[in-house]
TrEMBL record:
Lineage: Bacteria, Pseudomonadati, Pseudomonadota, Gammaproteobacteria, Oceanospirillales
Source taxon at top rank: Bacteria
Membrane topology: Multi-pass membrane protein
InterPro entries: UPF0324_pro (IPR018383), UPF0324_YeiH-like (IPR004630)
Matching PANTHER family: INNER MEMBRANE PROTEIN YEIH-RELATED, UPF0324 INNER MEMBRANE PROTEIN YEIH
Organism: Oceanospirillum linum
Pfam families for this protein: Cons_hypoth698
Name under which the protein is recorded: Uncharacterized protein
UniProt KW Flavoprotein keyword: no
GO cellular component: plasma membrane
Segment forming the signal sequence: none
Major site of localization recorded for this protein: membrane
Amino acid sequence: MPFLFLITLLAITLAKHPFLIELGLGSLPLAILLGMISGALFRSIGFNQSASQPSRGSLFCQQKLLRLGIILLGFGLTFQQVAALGWQAFVIDVVIISLVLLVGITAGIRFLGMSRELAVLTSVGSAVCGAAAIMATEPVVKGGHRQVSVAVATVVLFGSLSLLIYPVLFNILHIAPEQFGIFIGSTVHEVAQAVAAGQTISPEALQTAIMTKLIRVLCLAPVVVTLGMLLFRDKQTSPDNNTKKLPITIPYFIIFFVLAVMANSLVSLPETAHDVIHFTSQFSLTIAMAAMGYNTHWSTLREAGLKPLLLAALLFVLLISAGLGLNLVLYT
């Protein structure tokens, strides 16, 4: 637990470096990478080598603090902000999310032969908001630590790759910065990556990128509930009767996330309160990512093979092509 605290502070500090800001490596992906490196290093020298299961402290960070961080994200959103972007941005986000989930889950299960849980986690990470969406979906999917780690790794890889490709696309396409910002927000994986991509274009692109990305974050709750109802009802079975289906349980933090958005829409909090909430959310999410990275074995990623990478690559191409197409159609 103290070591994860140090990793978290290091990740938050490094994320403020100008070079890493340009690369779009926020504190969350940095914490994952630092956690994985330190975990692999400690295991290589024999420290904690016999621990086949994560410690209770690291699990607390990975699960409880992660959910706290997701709830607090809601205080950065308002329904008024979403409405200000217009119906086009909302339509683009909904279509992108639906298309990526449909193609990703279908291709992953039927054509690549992946497990249902891993296909869903990989797809939801690309469709909604990266690692946070994967972790929020896991209680419904019940995929386990290994599959969560693999899915998050694909988000870090292809989300970071987008930061190299999008500035080139902007120079080629010659479209308005505000419109390109909507494209960024509707297709880039992580919130931090969307912010970094928008900053490389212009202040106008940054503003629309953030708002469009926040619409996708707002879609997290209905996505999790819908996936649970449509794909994972068999996970909700009665222990004494395997054929009896129990009602879908909505994760409590998803409910509180929506309530946080509602509260922030109705009540104007002081700027100091927003700063405290933002820092607490960022710290909670970062230490959760550090714990997940620390508990990840490199052998897990190797054992996963090429299938998750192929699926993530397919979804990456789909995000770019569908996002560009929808933006050009709806904003011309």
